[in-house]
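Friendly challenge for the regulars: who can give me the structure tokens for this chain first? No prize, just bragging rights.
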Amino acid sequence: MQMTTSLLIVNPCDDEEDNMAMLCCHSDKGEMFLMTRYPDEDELEITLDDEPSTLDGIKVTLSPTRLLIEIGAGDTDVLKGDDHLEILHNSDAADLAEIEQTLQNILDGTGTYIREPA
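First reply, four minutes later:
Bragging rights claimed.
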């Protein structure tokens, strides 16, 4: 599955939401992707077009223009039958550090984070 978005919206630690880490985007076709995790939870939540699911053991790879989310074969219903979601983004290079911090907070202890060089 693939989406294209102009930017990734992130918050590494939302004080108003019990320190929840959040990454969100809206595709150029109107699809919404949301990945969140509270620091005291063992699983993260992915919402794709208003359908939330909890997961653990995912792999996320970030590059300056791409975010790849890979899930286990048993969880493909989360991504409408696919085992990965590729999000092509045009986020500003200055925002990549905050995106990376958010992903690390979401995946800490429950997934794998990889940063691809520019």
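Residues 2-115 form one domain. The chain has one domain: 2-115. Your move, everyone else.
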